[in-house]
Amino acid sequence: MTDGDRGTGKRENEIIIGIDLGTTNSLAATVFEHGPEALHPPGGNAIVPSVLTRRDGGWIVGEEARELRTLEPENTVFSVKRLMGRDEADLKEALKHLPFSVRAAQRGLVKVHVGGEAFTPQEISAEILKFVRARAEEALGRPVAKAVITVPAYFDDAQRQATRDAGRIAGLEVVRIINEPTAAAIAYGLDQKQTGLVAVYDLGGGTFDISLLQLSGVVFKVLSTHGDTHLGGDDFDMLVAGELKRRLLESHPKAELDSPLASQLLRKTAELIKIDLSHAPDTQYTLELPAQGIAESGTFTAETLETLISPLVERTLVSCREVLRAAGKQPGDIEEVVMVGGSSRMPLVRKKVGEFFGRPLNIAINPDEVVAIGAGIQGHLLAGGRRDFVLLDVIPLSLGIETLGGTFSKLITANTTIPAEVDERFTTYVENQTGVDINIYQGEREFVKDCRNLGRFRLKGIPPMPAGLPHVKVTFHVDTNGILSVSAVEERSGTQAAIEVIPSHGLTNAEIETIMDQAVEHAIEDLNHRQLVEFRNMANAVFRGIKLAWSDAEAIMSAGQLKEIQAQMDVVREQAKGNDSVALKKEMDLLGDMTRPLADAIISKAALAELRNFYDETQHP
Ligand code: AMP
């Protein structure tokens, strides 16, 4: 194979992938020519649940094992990361939460007993690594022998060594073990900032931690870490499942809801509800247990969810306070907050963490993938790869402002590389308008009602002028952090105003794709609607012009011509009420032909006025 084979830009033996070996999920990532990406087999998912089921002397790993977790609890192992490098004494608390059998072995170690055999946590983790590696190889179409593996910042030497050993057992050369928060910060390119304090808030399925990193040069030092090894999305699911159970028992007091099947159904439904409520104010659910004659539907609101989980989210903030206290820092000292873990998508979590640190959060990279991506970048650099890809290098969705009739005028189009700056001139449509609303939107559709509002501000104090005369220059600037600033200046008077917004607005790649797809789906109907609005605006402007110039018209046109114009104006007025943009345009063109001599007269008059204006301005700046 040659250099650049399959787009990774590295020779075959030089690839070093990054692996996030997680408590709940694991995945691999690497850097391609177009940038870093989680590795998934064609058509498959990058994320592998860190769950294994022992069957017929072999292991079932990932999604399938996750399904078997409640159905074959005695053969299924999960959360093995909690056992890595620990002895029985360390594990007293952890073992209470694990349904499978973990027993002391020689030299203070523990072994997991499953299917009549005993395995060290390293061996079991190695099975996850082998599975992730095989999928990475499938995705890349070539063998992989080296990896960077991530561990929590609080892992001690024994735990790190155990992770390294798991890699070795899986036949991988573990080139480096790096901290998960460091990897997340690298994924956001924060190592290139040289100095500063970074907080990494990681709320996954089963664990929570917050780490404070001090950056000096390109090296991150962990100043402090805090957390709760038994707090995460699973607990949120349990609370929702508890509420579902309560509701079910209200309508079916005799229901038997503690069987593995019922528990699994409640837990799965609860998780779906929770995930739905990250995007919607309420959601519908159905619970069916045919054997017990139960088929119940209901609505779950985000408000109920938030009431249930609020105490747990508060507990994460206690840790945030603690991690700052330990490092002798204040929330205001933190320059960047990076969000990691699937549960960090929850709106309540984002709101509370944003308020706590008093700043926008880094949420643009998929929080399930951000650690693996950082590890992939680290591996790429260790393999001698260059960092001339820019992270978050493109603007995912177009940015623009609302213009007359609710149309969306894009200033920066999707996939423009950042930093980016674009300006465009707009004007007023109303005589003597002294203020202009700048309403900022993100999206791909033609009308702002189908786009996402990012913020608004008003440019005030424009001196009264005829419509069309003010020159409002609107400038969009997106910096390297993806922060959008919008400013507007009326150039004749120098009046100005500005606002700063975060354009990514927490959209996931999937959401961005949906928005893109909708734009394509509606393209033709949007375009027709947009043209209709534009032609109506144009017709109004033409009518205003004719009205203003009517005395001139009477001087240069015959009574017959004037009558014809008036009749055609009525036709246009009628047509503008309909929905046919092509027909409207046709009638407007006809009106245009009839009023051409008049337009010529107006233009020369306007040109004279402009000249006079210019002369006045230069005389009296
Ligand atoms: P992780 O351990 O980082 O893979 O996170 C997994 C956890 O994130 C699980 O509890 C998921 O239910 C949860 N999760 C994933 N997506 C969302 C979402 N959109 N809203 C809320 N929780 C989510």
Largest sheet: 6 strands, mixed
| Rg | 31 Å
The figure for the number of domains is 4
Task: Identify the CATH architecture of the largest domain.
Answer: 2-Layer Sandwich
Distance, first to last CA: 69 Å
CATH class of the largest domain: Alpha Beta
Shape: elongated
Q: How many distinct helices?
A: 15
What is the average of the pLDDT values? 85
Bound molecules: adenosine monophosphate
What does this structure look like?
This protein is of the alpha+beta class. It has four domains: 3-231 and 311-392, 2-Layer Sandwich (Nucleotidyltransferase, domain 5); 233-310, ATPase, substrate binding domain, subdomain 4 (Actin, Chain A, domain 4), CATH 3.90.640; 395-506, Substrate Binding Domain Of DNAk, Chain A, domain 1 (Sandwich), CATH 2.60.34.10; 522-619, Substrate Binding Domain Of Dnak, Chain:A, Domain 2 (Up-down Bundle), CATH 1.20.1270. Helices cover 39% and strands 26% of the residues. It contains 15 helices and 26 strands. Strands 1, 2, 3, 4, 11 and 12 form a six-stranded mixed sheet that branches. A hairpin with a 4-residue loop joins strand 16 (282-289) and strand 17. The longest helix has 39 residues, at 581-619. The N and C termini lie far apart (69 Å). Mean pLDDT is 85; it is low at 1-13, 389-393 and 613-621. Adenosine monophosphate binds at residues 22, 24-25, 204-205, 232-234, 271, 274-275, 278, 341-343, 345-346, 368. Adenosine monophosphate (AMP) binds next to helix 6 and helix 7.
